[in-house]
Amino acid sequence: MDLTSISFILESFLVEISNAGDIWSINYLANRAIQNKDFDNAYKWYFEGDKLDDQESAYQLGLLYYNGNGIKQDFKESYLKFEKAALTGHSDSQFYIGKFHHFGNGSYFGSPVKKDFFKALEWYTLSSNQKNNKAQNNIGILYYVGDGDSTYKGFKVEVKKSLDWFKNAVE
């Protein structure tokens, strides 16, 4: 039996057990589809995983909607998928929820949330507690820039804190 035949048999087996609800196989097939830039199949498999409440599948669907890969870009749907995974403790999803609050609907046309640095900090902190360096970096940015309002009604600039967070992000 040649390598092509073995590959075909393996793929058929993975599809069969994925259809039976095996999360590992679902994610394997979806991730392989992403690597091959086959976003239709990636969406199909991540959607199946999401129906089974798999947090990685919900996160990956959030990314597909966020970037508009294979589907129409939709920040509301992206936010909902990230939120679903974030509420179960998925670090990268928590980061993206923080990012939505950090930049608000001024940056994301159709975003379901307004800019709120305090909510961004809450979500970034949850993600940062899991050693997510992107979240740590963005906390540093929040403290470095503040809310940009000269009255400082909201988030104040704290350069020392900012530098500490930037150091955490690169360690």
Concise description?
71% of the residues lie in helices and 0% in strands. It is an all-alpha fold and 171 residues long. The termini are far apart.
Q: How do the helices and strands line up, and which of them pair or pack?
A:
Blueprint: H1 3-19, H2 23-35, H3 39-51, H4 55-67, H5 75-86, H6 91-107, H7 117-128, H8 133-145, H9 159-170
Helix pairs in contact: 1-2, 2-3, 3-4, 4-5, 5-6, 6-7, 6-8, 7-8, 8-9
Task: Describe the protein's architecture and organization.
The structure is a single chain. Helix 2 runs antiparallel to helix 3 and helix 7 (117-128) runs antiparallel to helix 8. This protein is 71% helix and 0% strand. The model has no long low-confidence stretch (mean pLDDT 90). With 171 residues, the chain is mainly alpha-helical. The longest helix has 17 residues, at 3-19.
List keywords for this structure.
171 residues; mainly alpha
How are helices and strands ordered from N to C? HHHHHHHHH
Shape: elongated
Q: Strand content of the residues, in percent?
A: under 5%
Please estimate the helix content. Answer: over 70%
Class of secondary structure makeup: mainly alpha
Radius of gyration using CA atoms only: 19 Å
> What is the averaged pLDDT score?
90
Distance between the termini: 49 Å
pLDDT < 50 stretches: none
Counting DSSP H or I runs of 4 or more residues, the number of helices is 9
Number of strands: 0
User: Can you summarize the main beta sheet?
Assistant: none
